[in-house]
Automatic annotation (TrEMBL):
Gene that encodes it: hpnA
Domain of life: Bacteria
Protein name: Dihydroflavonol-4-reductase
MF (Gene Ontology): aldehyde dehydrogenase (NAD+) activity
Coiled-coil features, chain-numbered ranges: none
InterPro entries linked to this entry: Epimerase_deHydtase (IPR001509), NAD(P)-bd_dom_sf (IPR036291), NAD(P)-dependent_oxidoreduct (IPR051783)
Limits of the NAD-dependent epimerase/dehydratase domain: 4-226
Listed GO CC annotations: cytoplasm
Length: 326
């Protein structure tokens, strides 16, 4: 089987992509900054390479012998005060990786973008791959950088086969930070849960990994595929979490005006160069119904999706096994 380079190898999604590739017989090179943070056991068909995605000479060496690339590495933290940081890692490094891949005669390049590179919709009319990006994500440094990188990468589709996947909010095992699994900590075993007024699309991370490999194998070059599953309000999500954990918490909505006020306080702190993770942009994002459709991925890639409740269960089991939940 061919060798695939996977960047950002110790992240939640990349770990599951590596597992999916190994289980399908591929050889994998995993590029990551710290191999000690890699959560999956050693495997004879897996080579871990310690390097930063912005160290282009090392990345060039890592590409040797690879047939394809799955580019997952990205700057996702919300506390950087300037767009420059996101542009350097998410946009410029992604474009440079594409150029290096073309020089290395790489066959196919799969770029992992974000669902918020497209516009969201309602439960009745969810966003899809043709929906233009919407506020408040048009003001999000992270979302803007992912959309820009997606456009830059697709600009090279005449020189190399390029496919994009756009995951929504992923949950599952091997969340070492935790990253998106932090939402579980917000409600786990709490007698009272305060929840925002909006909602989002949730998906099992293993399904996104499977969809990414299907995009590698069968995706149409030049196309993007939303990896989405269940559109849930935050109340519905925390109710599912409560069912998984056998609790019956009191669920209390947070008024929108409180979240917006907190966001502006975050903006003020950022203005004086205090790096907080909350801002008016991400507080407004908690107030919208950030819903998407998986119709294209289901039809063109043959994707099927397991219940989000299963993703919650597996995430909870993982955190418990690592003594991260009490």
């Amino acid at each position: 089987m061919p060798t695939i380079l996977v960047t950002g190898a110790n992240g939640l999604l990349a770990t599951h992509i590596i597992i999916e590739l190994l289980e399908n017989g591929y050889h994998v090179k995993g590029l990551l900054r710290d191999r000690r943070k890699f959560q999956y056991p050693a495997h004879p068909n897996l080579e871990l390479i310690e390097n930063d995605i912005t160290d282009f000479s090392s990345v060039k060496n890592a590409l040797a012998g690879c047939e394809s690339v799955i580019h997952v590495a990205a700057l996702t933290a919300q506390n950087f005060l300037r767009y420059d940081a996101y542009e350097k890692v998410n946009v410029q490094a992604s474009e440079e990786l594409v150029k290096l891949a073309i020089d290395a005669k790489i066959k196919r390049f799969v770029y992992v973008s974000s669902a918020n590179a497209f516009g969201y919709g309602s439960k009745e009319n969810p966003g899809n791959e043709t929906t233009p990006m919407k506020a408040p994500f048009t003001s999000s440094f992270y979302a803007r950088s992912k959309q820009q990188a997606q456009m830059r990468v697709l600009a090279y589709r005449e020189q190399m086969e390029v496919v994009v996947v756009n995951p929504t909010f992923m949950l599952g095992a091997y969340d070492g930070k935790p990253s998106s699994g932090q939402i579980i900590f917000m409600g786990y075993n709490k007698p009272v849960i305060f929840y925002p007024p909006g909602g989002k699309n949730f998906v099992h991370v293993a399904d996104v990994a499977k969809g990414t490999v299907l995009a590698l194998e069968n995706g149409i070059a030049g196309e993007a595929y939303l990896m989405a599953n269940e559109n849930l309000s935050y109340r519905e999500f925390f109710r599912q979490l409560a069912e998984v954990t056998g609790r019956n918490p009191l669920l209390i909505p947070i008024p929108k005006f409180i979240l917006i006020a907190a966001g502006y306080m975050g903006d003020l702190l950022r203005f004086v160069n205090y790096p907080v993770s909350f801002s008016s942009v991400n507080m407004r994002s908690l107030c919208v119904h950030n819903y998407y459709s998986n119709e294209k991925a289901s039809k063109q890639l043959g994707m099927t999706f397991r219940p989000v409740k299963q993703a919650i269960e597996e995430a909870v089991q993982w955190f418990r096994s690592k003594d991260m939940l009490s």
